[in-house]
Specification:
The chain has 613 residues and is an alpha+beta fold. Helix 11 packs parallel to helix 13 and helix 12 runs antiparallel to helix 13. The longest helix has 21 residues. The protein folds into two domains: 280 residues, Beta-galactosidase, Chain A, domain 5 (Distorted Sandwich), CATH 2.70.98.70; 287 residues, Chondroitin AC/alginate lyase (Glycosyltransferase, Alpha/alpha barrel). A nine-stranded antiparallel sheet has the order 1-7-8-9-10-17-14-13-12. Strands 2, 3, 4, 5, 6, 11, 15 and 16 form an eight-stranded antiparallel sheet that branches. Strand 7 and strand 8 form a beta hairpin.
Length: 613
């Protein structure tokens, strides 16, 4: 057994033992036609959709501009002044106008650990008496603790008297340390979430007979809302601004003295939703995890309106009507989502509960718009392809360089996956960085390089700027013809991926090719570049290579899939998969290797066919 860390990059393995090799099926022999002879990979007719990276945004994007960073720094300095403290004065609330019901249930396992005296999150398990500003605590834990999202988990196992006995001392300790502006604890998105959770779980933090404590909590709520009202003006468009405005809307609905800001807060929230949520439900960072978080946030806003007996602003429901189907489109056969730009860390039960709470009829979309994912469903087989450029640096600091990668499920079995991404549980830095590379995705890798550069600061740099998508459907199945320009700047070459999934879902055929870009000179004229096409296998998928080195047999539960390759040898190598629980699991990957010709062209054909069908 290999006890070392699973590798993301392929290396030539030793020849498989004779007893592990399998003969290729007759209909998928090495000389069997995989593409044109059967007409399965005929390119769709038309120019296709051209999806550009950060359309309408400066293509030289390097994240927030210098002026934006300077403005944010000056704002933080001004918030620490006596003048700002005076600005936060106002009506002293005596009670909340209503208490909304949280539409999302808490985790009883975490709640039980809180009752037992701990405050666990992201692998950090301190006593609940720990001060939130403790420098030894990981940042991700401190942000979670400051948000008071853990009140939801506590309420899952403790009734009001028992929960208040635990929560109120923690709130009192927080007020002693953070009642005045603090750059970490008063970050706009954290304030917003704290306002939402403090109001939703007011019975757990305002049951004390101590009038001084109760007044301090209510006053802190009003002051944080006034601060948020000023802070949102200086926030650039994006998820942070949207989160802050959601919190401001909830505060204006529920806190006396803040309600005068409701009309303005509603208008700003509506504008922010338009800026963040595209017409097809896509968002800037293209992460399913962010989509899920926004759905939960808007459900909490909707609950605040319901607590006041009001209808939510139309923009809130309209955004939910777009976000939910877009997220539903990415759900695989096992109820989870793929590892798209850090979105793999979502538990299926959490996903199902949130979508159910939305009340939106989940009609999966296959639109190739800003969401950029192509979904092909055929019987029990589901194929999802990342068919758009990666996000701009300003939209996502931890996106992946996996353009044109796909995931494939057969029923509840993940057959082909990407290696994973960010989750609640921390990962070793080297592994976390490796999961973002092109090699960690089921796609083509040219010259061991990333299709989009990952900068030293972790943000994505130059690379894929445009993806061309052509889709055609018929009674035979669905064709996808995809093209990206991620290697043009360095090599003058483009990656083209053609896919066909049969209507019965039992036959997936593909062609991955490298071709010179029009009007671009080859960067290394006369030289040859090696490329690999990688297929990372899901956890529990057993693989047996064929004796001829051109195929493999995949066994996943009761089904068997036959893999054949042409254009280069197929080998089996080690890989890793990080599931929704954040635990890395050793798996395998199939790697087809080839080399371009002197004119820069090269291609491999491959097929996956369900046996016995």
């Amino acid at each position: 057994m290999n006890t070392g860390e699973p590798r993301l990059n392929a290396a030539a393995p030793a020849d498989p033992p004779a007893d592990s090799a399998a003969d290729p099926p007759a209909d998928l022999a090495p000389d069997a036609p995989i593409s044109a002879d059967r007409g399965l990979l005929t390119p769709p007719v038309g120019d296709g959709d051209r999806l550009r990276r950060g359309a309408g945004v400066d293509r030289g994007d390097q994240g927030l501009s210098l002026s934006e960073r300077v403005a944010a720094g000056l704002a933080r300095l001004s918030y620490s002044t006596a003048l700002h403290r005076i600005r936060l004065r106002g009506h002293f609330p005596l009670k909340l106008l209503a208490v909304p019901a949280d539409p999302i249930a808490g985790d009883p396992v975490i709640g039980a650990r809180i009752v037992a005296g701990r405050l666990p999150h992201a692998g950090y398990n301190p006593p609940r008496t720990l001060r939130f500003a403790d420098a030894s605590a990981p940042t991700v834990w401190r942000n979670w603790a400051h948000s008071f999202a853990w009140l939801r988990d506590l309420a899952a196992v403790a009734d009001r008297p028992a929960g208040a006995a635990i929560a109120e001392p923690i709130v009192a300790r927080w007020l002693a340390d953070h009642a005045e502006f603090d750059a970490a604890a008063w970050a706009p998105d954290l304030i917003a979430r704290r306002l939402i959770f403090w109001t939703a779980y007011a019975p757990y933090i305002l049951s004390s007979p101590d009038l001084v404590y109760r007044s301090a909590v209510l006053n802190a709520l009003a002051r944080m809302a006034r601060h948020l009202d000023r802070a949102v003006e200086k926030l650039p468009d994006g998820v942070t601004r949207l989160t802050a405005l959601a919190g401001l809307n909830v505060a204006a609905l529920l806190i006396p003295g803040v309600d005068a800001r409701l009309v303005r807060a509603e208008a700003l929230l509506a504008a922010a939703l338009v800026a963040v949520v595209a017409s097809d439900g896509g968002i800037g960072d293209r992460s399913p995890a962010t989509q899920l978080a926004l759905i939960e946030l808007l459900l909490q806003v909707r609950a605040a309106y319901a607590a006041r007996g009001r209808r939510p602003a139309g923009a809130v429901q309209a955004a939910l009507d777009r976000l939910v189907p877009a997220l539903t489109s990415l759900i695989m056969g096992d109820g989870g989502v793929g590892a798209w730009h850090g979105g793999g860390g979502i538990m299926p039960a959490q996903l199902a509960a949130t979508i159910g709470a939305s009340g939106v009829m989940p009609r999966p979309s296959r639109s190739p718009g800003p969401a950029g994912y192509q979904r092909v469903a055929a019987e029990t087989t589901l194929l999802i392809v990342d068919a758009a450029p990666p996000p701009q640096a300003r939209d996502a600091a931890a996106a992946h360089a996996g353009t044109l990668a796909f995931e494939l499920s057969d029923g509840a079995t993940r057959l082909i996956v990407n290696c994973g991404g960010a989750s609640v549980m921390p990962l070793p830095p080297e592994l976390a960085a490796g999961l973002r590379t092109t090699a960690a995705h089921s796609t083509l890798v040219l010259a061991d390089g990333n299709s989009t550069r990952i900068r030293p600061d972790g943000a994505l740099g130059r690379g894929v700027e445009e993806v061309v998508v052509n889709r055609h459907e018929s009674e035979d199945g669905v064709w996808l013809d995809l093209l990206h320009d991620g290697y043009v700047r360095r090599f003058g070459l483009r990656h083209r991926r053609r896919l066909f999934l049969s209507a019965a879902g039992d036959d997936l055929r593909g062609e991955d090719s490298v071709e010179p870009a029009p009007s671009r000179r080859l960067r290394r004229r006369g030289s040859r570049a090696g490329f690999d096409v990688r297929f990372h296998l899901g956890a529990g998928v057993a693989v047996t290579p064929t004796a001829d080195g051109q195929g493999a047999i995949l066994k996943a539960g009761p089904t068997v899939w036959q893999v054949r390759a042409r254009g280069g040898p197929l080998i089996v190598d080690d890989s890793v998969w990080v599931g929704p629980d954040g635990i890395p699991r050793p798996t395998k990957q199939l790697v087809i290797s080839a080399t371009t010709s002197a004119d820069g062209t090269g291609s491999v054909n491959w097929s996956l066919k369900r046996a016995g069908k």
